[in-house]
């Protein structure tokens, strides 16, 4: 995988944003606050379940999936939130997927995309997302703060994604409440679950941490369960023959 892969994605996003219309802000979809749920349910490793048809690292994952049925299965089996890929070029996602899923579930939905502009945040909210993703590696610290504050003002929660200690420290400096640790390096696309274990040594009280990528089995989940409030899982669930059983394997009891 090219070292410039993240740069290629961000160049594509810049082109998309340039063509994107500024939407009028619509009412925020009502559901519970993710941070409140994580605070009040720390007895179990919570699963953020992802809907994605493809990825740059794996290619096609599950193109024929009924996205709404998949999301409803996630919800019925205790997922705390549905993550929806909306990037069309690299992940074969679509904003309509977020819109359709958000209209058919009662739990929070995350707009999983490479957000670099306020216009994308408005689109996410209007499509039913209650949480957006901001990636530290994709933004300057100043721009990250601007977008974080803007999303928060719109009533959205923000999952801020980090991959190394320097990025984690940025999230801490900005006072971020929900922090993701991506076990995938976005420049090489290599994955290593040890990333989460190592960064956990620098976590701070009063924040909520999500381990992302490279989690496929209950054994993987057990490795990060002592340190994290939740995990974000996509490929393992999209490929599972029994989605309900796979979710249950990942919901590690921390009692």
UniProtKB/TrEMBL annotation:
Transmembrane segments: none annotated. GO terms for molecular function: indole-3-glycerol-phosphate synthase activity; phosphoribosylanthranilate isomerase activity. Pathway: Amino-acid biosynthesis; L-tryptophan biosynthesis; L-tryptophan from chorismate: step 4/5. It catalyses: 1-(2-carboxyphenylamino)-1-deoxy-D-ribulose 5-phosphate + H(+) = (1S,2R)-1-C-(indol-3-yl)glycerol 3-phosphate + CO2 + H2O. Its EC number is 4.1.1.48. Gene3D superfamilies: Aldolase class I. Residues 7-250 form the Indole-3-glycerol phosphate synthase domain. Keywords: Amino-acid biosynthesis, Aromatic amino acid biosynthesis, Decarboxylase, Lyase, Tryptophan biosynthesis. One of its GO terms (biological process) is L-tryptophan biosynthetic process. Coiled coil: none annotated. It comes from the Bacteria. InterPro entries: Aldolase_TIM, Indole-3-glycerol_P_synth, Indole-3-glycerol_P_synth_dom, Indole-3-GlycerolPSynthase_CS, RibuloseP-bd_barrel. PANTHER family: INDOLE-3-GLYCEROL-PHOSPHATE SYNTHASE, TRYPTOPHAN BIOSYNTHESIS PROTEIN. Belongs to the TrpC family. This is Indole-3-glycerol phosphate synthase. The gene is trpC.
């Amino acid at each position: 995988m090219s070292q410039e892969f993240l740069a290629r994605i961000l160049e594509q996003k810049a082109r998309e944003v340039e063509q994107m219309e500024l939407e009028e802000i619509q009412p925020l979809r009502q559901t519970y606050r993710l941070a409140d749920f994580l605070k009040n349910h720390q007895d179990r490793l919570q699963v953020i379940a992802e809907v994605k048809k493809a990825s740059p690292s794996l290619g096609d994952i599950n193109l024929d999936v009924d996205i709404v049925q998949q999301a409803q299965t996630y919800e019925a089996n205790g997922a705390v939130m549905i993550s929806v890929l909306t990037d069309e070029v690299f992940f074969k996602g679509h904003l309509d997927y977020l819109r359709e899923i958000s209209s058919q579930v009662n739990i929070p939905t995350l707009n999983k995309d490479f957000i670099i502009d306020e216009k994308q945040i408005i689109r996410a909210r209007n499509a039913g997302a209650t949480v957006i993703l901001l990636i530290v590696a994709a933004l300057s610290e100043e721009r990250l703060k601007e977008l974080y504050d803007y999303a928060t003002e719109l009533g959205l929660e923000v999952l801020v994604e980090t991959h190394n200690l320097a990025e984690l420290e940025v999230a801490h400096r900005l006072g971020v409440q929900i922090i993701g640790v991506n076990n995938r390096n976005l420049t090489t696309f290599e994955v290593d679950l040890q990333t989460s274990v190592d960064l956990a040594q620098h976590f701070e009280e009063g924040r909520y941490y999500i381990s992302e990528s490279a989690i496929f089995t209950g054994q993987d989940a057990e490795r990060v369960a002592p340190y994290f409030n939740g995990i974000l899982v996509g490929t393992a669930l999209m490929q599972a023959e029994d989605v309900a059983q796979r979710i249950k394997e990942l919901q590690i009891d921390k009692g």
